[in-house]
Amino acid sequence: MGGDHGPRVTVPAAINYLQSHSETDIILVGLPDVIELELRSHKFAPSPRMRVQAASEVIGMDESPALALRGKKNSSMRVAINLVKSGEAQACVSAGNTGALIATARFVLKTLPGIDRPALAVVLPTIRGHTYVLDLGANVDCTAEHLLQFGVMGATLVSSVENKEKPSVGLLNIGEEEIKGNEVVKQAAELLRDSGLNFYGNIEGNDIYKGTTDVVVCDGFVGNVALKTSEGVAQMLSIFLREEFRRNLLTRFASLIAIPVIKAFKRRIDHRRYNGASLLGLRGIVIKSHGSADSLAFGFAIARAVDEVRGGMLRHISERVAQLPHHFKNSSSYHRPLAEERPA
Amino acid sequence: MGGDHGPRVTVPAAINYLQSHSETDIILVGLPDVIELELRSHKFAPSPRMRVQAASEVIGMDESPALALRGKKNSSMRVAINLVKSGEAQACVSAGNTGALIATARFVLKTLPGIDRPALAVVLPTIRGHTYVLDLGANVDCTAEHLLQFGVMGATLVSSVENKEKPSVGLLNIGEEEIKGNEVVKQAAELLRDSGLNFYGNIEGNDIYKGTTDVVVCDGFVGNVALKTSEGVAQMLSIFLREEFRRNLLTRFASLIAIPVIKAFKRRIDHRRYNGASLLGLRGIVIKSHGSADSLAFGFAIARAVDEVRGGMLRHISERVAQLPHHFKNSSSYHRPLAEERPA
Q1: DSSP H helical segments within chain A, as ranges?
Q2: Cα dihedral B182/B183/B187/B188 (nearest 10)
Q3: For a Cys-Cys bond, which of A86, A286, B87, B289 suits B301, CB 3.0-4.6 Å?
């Protein structure tokens, strides 16, 4: 039900996904009337492969996460995450309120043993392909241990969904030299060096888009600023380019000739293809779609969820964390079976 | 002498500047033989308006700032900053080792009363014009008070060089809501609200390039990541655009037609026009040019130095700091006349 557009986007995305992927079933969670109306408008009806799970409440995009968690126990978000906990669903995909999604998922699913805090990982395009960056805003005051955990989770995500045995991990810093950076980052570099990960070392902001490493580790504050700043640059450049093409009759003529090039360029950096941030470190798979996603973008978020389930990501993260040095396992989390290990 | 190219860039930039600005004199500091050879190659000789000040040492771009400060007391950088301290020069422009420049400038010139740490401010292009961002890497572990000081210095810089009476100041955060952000940023927001500055409130990464505020305040770690990330995005997009224009005969034809547009676009975002970071908070004006600057770019750094001298920036910052609430003035700096107040 969530996101800026609600079922008008999520329902058609689910229908499209279902029609092209015969091995996946989808449960639509929310106000049944609204969902069924949307299904009908696409000449679709609930079926065993796409059933509707009723939830009587909806969390607003601006609602306080804490209040939503306490007050709306029958929200579509909460019910969907409950389905993951019970094993009825293997993943939850939501375009809703980010803070509420993180708080609810953390409260209901709990973190994996050895993981203190969940982290949000996104995929970003690079000159060479793409890279995974985490955290993107779930954690704003991180310790070195948290950054280490992000490194482990990010590397495991990449090896699970991309079949890379030893993904390289870079630590976002303000210089490649070991002496640079703030205290937390310097300590994190030491932990990462001893972690058994394929740790590349410090990288700088421009390395994200150079594709220097498969995984980029940073705290949620820095990651969020980097992501939003990137959006800002891309937006400004696209406005400048459009303005230059519209400057006079001659440039307008050039723009006509260049249309196929500009279209190919835009397709290549289309952020919708990168929609779907992975909430990592929980005992269940949760994907956060951008709130303003359209149905194409939301489809990519669904595909990401399926990739993570298929890649056995939860199991891999648990195994990977268990191999880490002792200091890393002093976590308050207790061990219980993972959602994906239990029968569906 | 500093930077990746040394006098091959800085000397012609100085000559060009001098020829088009009759009211400015320039002192070239460094190894006299090298500088004079470069002057001769441009058919120029030392003159009262462009004299050479000998310095026997050069600090390498990768040298440790601490070692450079202790060991090279006759480096071109140190001698140039000494000239600012003695009042012989009103500003120093260097393309050299950033860490060494900050350490030397801080040691020789000292901070202004009320300012704990110098900060690096850069100008970035925005959709509406440009904005000043600080800190860009001089300070990686900042307190809320430091961020407040950055706000004051940034606002004063803008009002000094751009004649804006009340420049707006934004605090870089990960959400516009007051509850968001890490602890330091939340406290900084409170201090900025009570500072008498035209405080806009929290802004996000994309607001930098939207031009939401005249000044963007952040700690040096975040600022450096934001800047480098921006460079990375711009570089990636430009590579993608070039690749699309080179894809086949048709797109190559389109690129020929679009040449004037692409050129205008590139001119508009030419980073050389934004070269020259201001090292703020010291008892003297110091401008850091990008190490890889060419002579056009270095000329912009010289122009920035002149603008700051002419705008009376040092005096304005001192006055502005004196007006701040008491807690802000508990600085270890003691008061002595500013370089620009003393006779030349």
Answers
A1: 7-20, 32-41, 65-71, 76-86, 98-109, 144-162, 183-193, 205-210, 220-245, 249-268, 295-310, 313-322
A2: -40
A3: B289
Q: Which residues face A216 on adjacent strands?
A: A133, A170
Residues in chain B: 344
CA distance A223 to B228: 13
Chain A residue closest in CA terms to B224: A174
In sequence order, which residues have a C-beta less than 8 Å from that of residue A325 and are 6 or more positions away? A194, A195
Q: Hey, is the C-beta of A242 within 8 angstroms of any chain B C-beta?
A: no
| Alpha-carbon dihedral angle through residues A313, A314, A315, A316, given to the nearest 10 degrees | 50
- Write the CB contacts of A99 (distance below 8 Å, at least 6 apart in sequence): A64, A65
Please report which confidence band the pLDDT of residue A297 belongs to, taking 50, 70 and 90 as the band edges: very high
Domains within chain B, CATH numbers bracketed: 1-109+274-307 (3.40.718.10), 230-266 (no CATH)
Q: Left, alpha or beta for A324 (phi > 0: left; psi -120 to 50: alpha)?
A: beta
pLDDT tier at A335, thresholds 50, 70, 90: very low
Q: Which amino acid is present at A245?
A: F
| Complex confidence, ipTM | 0.86
Beta-carbon separation of A225 and B225 below 8 A: yes
Taking CB atoms and an 8 Å cutoff, what residues of chain A touch B253? 257
Residue that the structure tokens 């269940």 belong to: A284
Place of tokens 């050069």: B58
CA distance B142 to B183: 11
Residue B47, chain A, CB below 8 Å: the answer is: no
A85 in Cβ contact with A314 (< 8 Å): no
Determine contact: A218 vs chain B, CB below 8 A: yes
Can you give the pLDDT at residue A326?
Answer: 52
Give the C-alpha separation, B133 to B247, whole Å: 38
Determine contact, residues A321/A295, Cβ cutoff 8 Å. no
Contact (CB<8Å) B224/A205: yes
Q: How far apart are CA A120 and CA A135, in angstroms?
A: 5
Contact in structure between B68 and B100 (CB atoms under 8 Å):
yes
DSSP sequence for A194-234: TSSSEEEEEE-HHHHHHT--SEEE--HHHHHHHHHHHHHHH
pLDDT in tens, chain B (344 residues): 888 999 999 999 999 999 999 999 999 999 999 999 999 999 999 999 999 999 999 999 888 888 888 989 999 999 999 999 999 999 999 999 999 999 999 999 999 988 988 999 999 999 999 999 999 987 888 899 999 999 999 999 999 999 899 999 999 998 766 567 788 999 999 999 999 999 999 999 999 999 999 999 999 999 999 999 999 999 999 899 889 888 888 888 888 888 888 888 888 888 899 999 999 999 999 999 999 999 999 999 999 999 999 999 999 998 988 877 655 444 443 334 444 444 43
The answer to whether residue A220 neighbours chain B at the CB level (below 8 Å) is: yes
Of A208, A233, A265, the CB nearest to B209: A233
* Chain B residue with minimum CA distance to A227: B205
**Cβ contact B233–A230 (<8 Å):** yes
- H or E element in which residue B278 lies: strand B277-280
What region, left, alpha or beta, does residue A281 occupy, with left being phi > 0 and alpha being psi -120 to 50 degrees?
left
